[in-house]
Amino acid sequence: MSSSEVNGVHYFVQGWKLISLPGIRRFVIIPLLVNILLMGGAFWWLFSQLGQWIPSIMSHVPGWLRWLDYVIWPIAVVSILLVFSFLFSTLANLIAAPFSGLLAEQLEARLTGKTQPDAGIWGMMKDFPRIMKRECQKLGYYLPRALLLLVLHFIPGIGQTLAPVLWFFFSAWMLAIQYCDYPFDNHKVSFADMRRSLGRHKIDHLQFGSLVSLCTLVPLLNLLILPVAVCGATAMWVDRYRHNHVGGIAGR
Question: Could you tell me which of 54, 149, 63, 136 has the C-alpha nearest to residue 94?
């Protein structure tokens, strides 16, 4: 099956299969542990706070919209879950970024049949400043757009209805960028070039990111999703983008 015949759902499913490959499992462990510790603790705290936050949010709904409480209340809950699941995922990705890049690197070598690069700690530490710079670029892309959506959320009625929908698709796009960026960055493809490449298959990446986003809301699944998403995105890179970018993995 050619890459043009498969979509983002296919690569999401592939991610679940690839994390169990012999020789790859050991590179899954650290991103998995980071996600378990951070997402597990964060969601335990979040659910303990929802009982206080929801009444506070509902108190800002104008009186003339009170008859819509039964609609706005679940929208408020979904909005909080979407925002916090993405924020927690972003923090987990930031902490695990060097190890996620290493996982993408090793999986790509396995999928392409190339000699696996040196996976030593020194090689990873040498790339740490570049990896953190890349994470800052993603944060710079994310923050102004997220702030606009946050402002929209405080517009009574229309804004509170539209904001969760727009936030979901924006989160899906950002998660696709986050995970697809690991193999692109391993090959020193610029952030702008990476975004342009993903934009040519935007629907597929929204499918992929949407499934990742939904899994971050589901207990237990959200603990596994970080390495799964890295593996799925790496498979997509190998099938669709690798042949368009010159050279192997440099500097590792």
Answer: 136
pTM above 0.85, yes or no: no
Task: Output the CA torsion 28→31→35→37 (10° steps).
Answer: 100
Alpha-carbon distance of 48 to 50, in angstroms, equals: 6
Q: Residue type for 106, please?
A: Q
- Count of other CB atoms within 10 angstroms of residue 92: 23
**Is 226 within 8 Å of 82 (Cβ atoms)?**
no
- pLDDT at position 164 is 80
The dihedral over CA atoms of 81, 82, 84, 89, expressed in degrees to the nearest 10, equals: 130
Q: What is the mean pLDDT of residues 98-121?
A: 81
Q: What are the CA-CA distances from residue 2 to residues 159, 203, 239 (Å)?
A: 41, 17, 8
Q: Per mean pLDDT, which of 25-39, 77-91, 196-210 is the most reliable?
A: 196-210
- pLDDT at position 116, please? 60
Q: Is the dihedral of CA 34, 26, 12, 113 positive or negative?
A: positive
- State the Rg of the chain over Cα: 19
Q: What is the pLDDT of residues 161-211, one digit of tens each?
A: 787 888 889 989 999 999 999 999 999 999 999 999 999 999 999 999 999
CB-count burial class (<10 Å; 0-12, 13-18, 19+) for 103: buried
Of the CA atoms within 13 Å of residue 42, those in its CB half-sphere come to 23
